[in-house]
Write a structure and sequence with these properties.
Layout: H1 2-7, E1 9-13, E2 19-23, E3 43-44, E4 53-54, H2 57-116, H3 127-139, H4 143-166, H5 170-194, H6 196-207, H7 211-240, H8 247-260, H9 269-273, H10 288-304
Antiparallel strand pairs: 1-2, 3-4
Length: about 300
Protein backbone atom coordinates (compact mmCIF):
# COMPACT_ATOMS: atom_id res chain seq x y z
CA UNK A 1 0.00 0.00 0.00
CA UNK A 2 2.83 2.36 0.83
CA UNK A 3 4.48 1.61 -2.49
CA UNK A 4 1.25 2.46 -4.29
CA UNK A 5 1.04 5.77 -2.56
CA UNK A 6 4.72 6.50 -3.28
CA UNK A 7 4.08 5.96 -6.97
CA UNK A 8 1.50 8.71 -7.06
CA UNK A 9 2.98 11.26 -4.66
CA UNK A 10 5.66 13.79 -5.62
CA UNK A 11 7.30 15.84 -2.89
CA UNK A 12 8.03 19.46 -3.73
CA UNK A 13 9.80 21.98 -1.59
CA UNK A 14 9.75 25.72 -2.00
CA UNK A 15 12.54 28.12 -1.36
CA UNK A 16 11.68 28.09 2.37
CA UNK A 17 11.98 24.28 2.41
CA UNK A 18 8.28 23.81 3.15
CA UNK A 19 7.48 20.33 1.86
CA UNK A 20 4.11 19.41 0.36
CA UNK A 21 2.89 16.26 -1.30
CA UNK A 22 1.12 16.53 -4.65
CA UNK A 23 -0.89 13.61 -6.06
CA UNK A 24 -0.16 12.78 -9.67
CA UNK A 25 -2.88 11.09 -11.84
CA UNK A 26 -2.31 7.50 -12.93
CA UNK A 27 -1.70 7.17 -16.68
CA UNK A 28 -4.70 5.75 -18.51
CA UNK A 29 -2.85 2.64 -19.77
CA UNK A 30 -0.67 2.07 -16.77
CA UNK A 31 -0.59 -1.50 -15.56
CA UNK A 32 -2.73 -2.40 -12.62
CA UNK A 33 -0.83 -3.07 -9.40
CA UNK A 34 0.59 -6.53 -9.45
CA UNK A 35 -0.61 -7.25 -13.03
CA UNK A 36 0.23 -6.72 -16.71
CA UNK A 37 -1.27 -4.25 -19.10
CA UNK A 38 -4.15 -5.74 -21.10
CA UNK A 39 -4.23 -3.13 -23.88
CA UNK A 40 -8.06 -2.90 -23.52
CA UNK A 41 -8.28 -0.44 -20.70
CA UNK A 42 -11.36 1.78 -20.53
CA UNK A 43 -11.58 5.16 -18.94
CA UNK A 44 -15.08 6.08 -17.90
CA UNK A 45 -16.13 9.33 -16.43
CA UNK A 46 -18.32 9.43 -13.40
CA UNK A 47 -22.04 9.15 -13.96
CA UNK A 48 -22.53 12.64 -12.60
CA UNK A 49 -20.64 14.13 -15.54
CA UNK A 50 -22.90 12.62 -18.18
CA UNK A 51 -21.76 8.97 -18.22
CA UNK A 52 -19.71 9.29 -21.41
CA UNK A 53 -17.57 6.28 -22.38
CA UNK A 54 -14.29 6.08 -24.20
CA UNK A 55 -13.07 2.87 -25.84
CA UNK A 56 -9.84 2.11 -27.59
CA UNK A 57 -9.35 0.50 -31.00
CA UNK A 58 -9.12 -3.00 -29.51
CA UNK A 59 -12.60 -2.68 -28.05
CA UNK A 60 -13.99 -1.67 -31.44
CA UNK A 61 -12.33 -4.68 -33.05
CA UNK A 62 -13.90 -6.83 -30.37
CA UNK A 63 -17.31 -5.45 -31.30
CA UNK A 64 -16.72 -6.20 -34.97
CA UNK A 65 -15.78 -9.77 -34.07
CA UNK A 66 -19.06 -10.10 -32.18
CA UNK A 67 -21.06 -8.77 -35.13
CA UNK A 68 -19.33 -11.25 -37.43
CA UNK A 69 -20.19 -14.02 -35.00
CA UNK A 70 -23.83 -12.91 -34.99
CA UNK A 71 -23.93 -12.82 -38.78
CA UNK A 72 -22.52 -16.33 -39.10
CA UNK A 73 -25.75 -18.19 -38.07
CA UNK A 74 -27.88 -16.21 -40.55
CA UNK A 75 -25.44 -16.99 -43.36
CA UNK A 76 -25.54 -20.65 -42.35
CA UNK A 77 -29.35 -20.61 -42.30
CA UNK A 78 -29.45 -19.06 -45.78
CA UNK A 79 -27.10 -21.73 -47.07
CA UNK A 80 -29.23 -24.44 -45.49
CA UNK A 81 -32.38 -22.98 -47.05
CA UNK A 82 -30.84 -22.90 -50.51
CA UNK A 83 -29.62 -26.47 -50.03
CA UNK A 84 -33.09 -27.63 -49.03
CA UNK A 85 -34.61 -25.85 -52.02
CA UNK A 86 -32.11 -27.49 -54.36
CA UNK A 87 -32.82 -30.91 -52.81
CA UNK A 88 -36.57 -30.46 -53.19
CA UNK A 89 -36.15 -29.37 -56.80
CA UNK A 90 -33.97 -32.40 -57.53
CA UNK A 91 -36.42 -34.79 -55.86
CA UNK A 92 -39.32 -33.26 -57.77
CA UNK A 93 -37.43 -33.58 -61.05
CA UNK A 94 -36.68 -37.23 -60.25
CA UNK A 95 -40.35 -37.86 -59.43
CA UNK A 96 -41.50 -36.29 -62.72
CA UNK A 97 -38.96 -38.37 -64.63
CA UNK A 98 -40.28 -41.51 -62.91
CA UNK A 99 -43.82 -40.47 -63.89
CA UNK A 100 -42.83 -39.98 -67.52
CA UNK A 101 -40.86 -43.22 -67.79
CA UNK A 102 -42.94 -45.62 -65.70
CA UNK A 103 -46.38 -44.48 -64.55
CA UNK A 104 -47.82 -42.65 -67.55
CA UNK A 105 -46.66 -45.12 -70.28
CA UNK A 106 -48.46 -47.96 -68.46
CA UNK A 107 -51.58 -45.85 -67.99
CA UNK A 108 -51.49 -44.74 -71.62
CA UNK A 109 -51.45 -48.33 -72.88
CA UNK A 110 -54.45 -49.21 -70.74
CA UNK A 111 -56.38 -46.12 -71.89
CA UNK A 112 -55.72 -46.98 -75.53
CA UNK A 113 -57.20 -50.44 -75.05
CA UNK A 114 -60.23 -49.13 -73.16
CA UNK A 115 -61.04 -46.49 -75.77
CA UNK A 116 -61.12 -48.88 -78.72
CA UNK A 117 -62.72 -51.90 -77.09
CA UNK A 118 -66.08 -53.11 -78.35
CA UNK A 119 -68.90 -53.99 -75.95
CA UNK A 120 -68.44 -57.68 -76.78
CA UNK A 121 -64.65 -57.62 -76.48
CA UNK A 122 -62.76 -58.97 -73.48
CA UNK A 123 -59.43 -57.34 -72.81
CA UNK A 124 -56.98 -58.41 -70.15
CA UNK A 125 -56.27 -55.32 -68.08
CA UNK A 126 -55.36 -55.23 -64.41
CA UNK A 127 -57.66 -52.54 -63.07
CA UNK A 128 -55.96 -52.83 -59.67
CA UNK A 129 -52.62 -52.06 -61.31
CA UNK A 130 -54.05 -49.02 -63.13
CA UNK A 131 -55.60 -47.76 -59.90
CA UNK A 132 -52.25 -48.25 -58.16
CA UNK A 133 -50.48 -46.09 -60.76
CA UNK A 134 -53.10 -43.37 -60.39
CA UNK A 135 -52.83 -43.53 -56.60
CA UNK A 136 -49.03 -43.11 -56.72
CA UNK A 137 -49.28 -40.18 -59.13
CA UNK A 138 -51.74 -38.36 -56.88
CA UNK A 139 -49.66 -39.04 -53.77
CA UNK A 140 -46.57 -37.67 -55.54
CA UNK A 141 -48.52 -34.48 -56.34
CA UNK A 142 -48.75 -35.16 -60.08
CA UNK A 143 -52.56 -34.83 -60.20
CA UNK A 144 -52.56 -31.82 -62.51
CA UNK A 145 -50.01 -33.41 -64.82
CA UNK A 146 -51.97 -36.66 -64.90
CA UNK A 147 -55.25 -34.88 -65.60
CA UNK A 148 -53.73 -32.90 -68.47
CA UNK A 149 -52.18 -36.03 -69.99
CA UNK A 150 -55.45 -37.95 -69.70
CA UNK A 151 -57.57 -35.25 -71.33
CA UNK A 152 -54.99 -34.72 -74.08
CA UNK A 153 -54.90 -38.46 -74.78
CA UNK A 154 -58.68 -38.70 -75.03
CA UNK A 155 -58.89 -35.51 -77.08
CA UNK A 156 -56.48 -36.97 -79.63
CA UNK A 157 -58.57 -40.14 -79.82
CA UNK A 158 -61.77 -38.16 -80.34
CA UNK A 159 -60.20 -36.22 -83.19
CA UNK A 160 -59.56 -39.52 -84.97
CA UNK A 161 -63.17 -40.54 -84.31
CA UNK A 162 -64.37 -37.28 -85.82
CA UNK A 163 -62.24 -37.81 -88.91
CA UNK A 164 -63.69 -41.31 -89.33
CA UNK A 165 -67.23 -39.94 -89.12
CA UNK A 166 -66.38 -37.28 -91.65
CA UNK A 167 -65.57 -40.01 -94.16
CA UNK A 168 -68.82 -41.90 -93.50
CA UNK A 169 -71.49 -42.22 -96.18
CA UNK A 170 -74.83 -40.50 -95.40
CA UNK A 171 -76.80 -43.78 -95.25
CA UNK A 172 -74.42 -45.09 -92.59
CA UNK A 173 -73.82 -41.87 -90.71
CA UNK A 174 -76.43 -42.38 -87.98
CA UNK A 175 -75.26 -45.93 -87.23
CA UNK A 176 -71.61 -44.87 -87.20
CA UNK A 177 -72.33 -42.00 -84.84
CA UNK A 178 -74.29 -44.32 -82.58
CA UNK A 179 -71.37 -46.76 -82.51
CA UNK A 180 -68.86 -44.02 -81.68
CA UNK A 181 -71.04 -42.65 -78.88
CA UNK A 182 -71.80 -46.10 -77.42
CA UNK A 183 -68.15 -47.17 -77.55
CA UNK A 184 -67.01 -43.98 -75.86
CA UNK A 185 -69.57 -44.09 -73.05
CA UNK A 186 -68.70 -47.77 -72.44
CA UNK A 187 -65.00 -46.92 -72.17
CA UNK A 188 -65.78 -44.19 -69.62
CA UNK A 189 -67.46 -46.80 -67.43
CA UNK A 190 -64.00 -48.31 -67.02
CA UNK A 191 -61.81 -45.22 -67.14
CA UNK A 192 -63.65 -43.08 -64.61
CA UNK A 193 -63.59 -45.67 -61.76
CA UNK A 194 -59.84 -46.35 -62.02
CA UNK A 195 -59.17 -42.59 -61.96
CA UNK A 196 -61.48 -42.18 -58.99
CA UNK A 197 -58.65 -41.12 -56.64
CA UNK A 198 -57.61 -38.28 -58.94
CA UNK A 199 -61.25 -37.31 -59.42
CA UNK A 200 -61.89 -37.13 -55.68
CA UNK A 201 -58.76 -35.34 -54.51
CA UNK A 202 -58.05 -33.06 -57.48
CA UNK A 203 -60.95 -32.55 -59.89
CA UNK A 204 -63.74 -32.38 -57.34
CA UNK A 205 -61.68 -30.63 -54.65
CA UNK A 206 -59.64 -28.11 -56.64
CA UNK A 207 -61.54 -27.75 -59.92
CA UNK A 208 -65.04 -28.24 -58.49
CA UNK A 209 -65.94 -30.48 -61.42
CA UNK A 210 -66.46 -34.16 -62.17
CA UNK A 211 -64.24 -36.36 -64.34
CA UNK A 212 -67.05 -38.05 -66.25
CA UNK A 213 -68.71 -34.72 -67.06
CA UNK A 214 -65.39 -33.32 -68.29
CA UNK A 215 -64.79 -36.33 -70.55
CA UNK A 216 -68.33 -36.26 -71.95
CA UNK A 217 -67.85 -32.57 -72.68
CA UNK A 218 -64.80 -33.52 -74.74
CA UNK A 219 -67.00 -35.77 -76.89
CA UNK A 220 -69.53 -32.98 -77.30
CA UNK A 221 -66.87 -30.44 -78.30
CA UNK A 222 -64.72 -32.57 -80.59
CA UNK A 223 -67.26 -34.97 -82.16
CA UNK A 224 -70.94 -34.14 -81.73
CA UNK A 225 -70.70 -30.39 -82.25
CA UNK A 226 -68.71 -30.84 -85.45
CA UNK A 227 -71.30 -33.18 -86.98
CA UNK A 228 -74.63 -32.07 -85.49
CA UNK A 229 -75.55 -30.07 -88.58
CA UNK A 230 -75.01 -33.18 -90.72
CA UNK A 231 -76.66 -35.52 -88.26
CA UNK A 232 -79.85 -33.58 -87.53
CA UNK A 233 -81.37 -33.62 -91.09
CA UNK A 234 -80.62 -37.35 -91.35
CA UNK A 235 -82.38 -37.98 -88.02
CA UNK A 236 -85.41 -35.93 -89.05
CA UNK A 237 -85.65 -37.84 -92.33
CA UNK A 238 -85.25 -41.21 -90.62
CA UNK A 239 -87.88 -40.28 -88.03
CA UNK A 240 -90.37 -39.48 -90.79
CA UNK A 241 -89.79 -42.91 -92.34
CA UNK A 242 -90.35 -45.55 -89.63
CA UNK A 243 -87.85 -48.39 -89.43
CA UNK A 244 -85.47 -46.88 -91.92
CA UNK A 245 -83.17 -46.85 -88.91
CA UNK A 246 -83.55 -49.21 -85.99
CA UNK A 247 -85.73 -47.58 -83.27
CA UNK A 248 -83.13 -48.45 -80.61
CA UNK A 249 -80.45 -46.67 -82.64
CA UNK A 250 -82.63 -43.61 -83.14
CA UNK A 251 -83.49 -43.48 -79.46
CA UNK A 252 -79.86 -43.86 -78.40
CA UNK A 253 -78.63 -41.10 -80.70
CA UNK A 254 -81.38 -38.61 -79.87
CA UNK A 255 -81.09 -39.19 -76.12
CA UNK A 256 -77.32 -39.00 -76.38
CA UNK A 257 -77.46 -35.65 -78.16
CA UNK A 258 -79.87 -34.31 -75.57
CA UNK A 259 -77.63 -35.41 -72.69
CA UNK A 260 -74.63 -33.73 -74.33
CA UNK A 261 -76.35 -30.45 -75.15
CA UNK A 262 -80.01 -30.04 -74.13
CA UNK A 263 -80.25 -26.89 -76.28
CA UNK A 264 -79.91 -29.04 -79.40
CA UNK A 265 -83.52 -30.09 -78.88
CA UNK A 266 -84.56 -26.68 -80.21
CA UNK A 267 -83.15 -27.65 -83.62
CA UNK A 268 -85.82 -30.35 -84.04
CA UNK A 269 -88.49 -30.17 -81.31
CA UNK A 270 -90.77 -32.74 -82.94
CA UNK A 271 -87.90 -35.23 -83.23
CA UNK A 272 -86.72 -34.88 -79.64
CA UNK A 273 -90.24 -34.90 -78.20
CA UNK A 274 -90.73 -38.36 -79.68
CA UNK A 275 -87.92 -39.74 -77.48
CA UNK A 276 -87.57 -37.33 -74.55
CA UNK A 277 -90.63 -37.15 -72.28
CA UNK A 278 -92.00 -33.79 -71.18
CA UNK A 279 -89.65 -31.87 -73.46
CA UNK A 280 -92.50 -29.90 -75.03
CA UNK A 281 -94.29 -27.12 -73.15
CA UNK A 282 -97.45 -28.20 -71.29
CA UNK A 283 -100.57 -28.70 -73.37
CA UNK A 284 -103.09 -25.88 -73.40
CA UNK A 285 -106.78 -26.09 -74.13
CA UNK A 286 -106.63 -23.62 -77.02
CA UNK A 287 -104.41 -25.99 -79.04
CA UNK A 288 -106.45 -29.18 -78.66
CA UNK A 289 -107.52 -29.06 -82.29
CA UNK A 290 -103.87 -28.90 -83.37
CA UNK A 291 -103.05 -31.93 -81.22
CA UNK A 292 -105.92 -33.88 -82.78
CA UNK A 293 -104.81 -33.00 -86.32
CA UNK A 294 -101.26 -34.09 -85.48
CA UNK A 295 -102.48 -37.44 -84.19
CA UNK A 296 -104.61 -38.04 -87.28
CA UNK A 297 -101.61 -37.32 -89.49
CA UNK A 298 -99.52 -39.82 -87.58
CA UNK A 299 -102.22 -42.48 -87.88
CA UNK A 300 -102.46 -41.91 -91.64
CA UNK A 301 -98.67 -42.28 -92.02
CA UNK A 302 -98.71 -45.52 -90.05
CA UNK A 303 -101.59 -46.98 -92.09
CA UNK A 304 -99.82 -46.05 -95.33
CA UNK A 305 -96.75 -47.96 -94.15
CA UNK A 306 -98.77 -51.15 -93.57
CA UNK A 307 -99.77 -50.75 -89.93
CA UNK A 308 -103.45 -51.65 -89.29
CA UNK A 309 -105.57 -49.12 -87.44
Amino acid sequence: MENMEDDHLHVNDDHNHNYCAVALPRPPCSPAPGGEATGRARLRSDGSTGGSKFMDSDSSSEGSEASETDAAPSASAAGKFSLNSASKFLLNAMAIEDYRKNHWPNLEKAIDLLLIQKPTDHISISYAQIYSYVYKCVCQQHSELLYNDLTLKIMTHLQRVSSHLQASRPENFIENFDFALSQYTASLQCIVPVFMYMNKFYIETKLNRDLREDLMKLFADHVAEKHVNTLMPLLIKAHSMPFQVQPSTMANVVKGLYSLRPEWAKLAPALFSGFIPQINPPAVESQLSDYAARDQKLQMELSMNGFPR
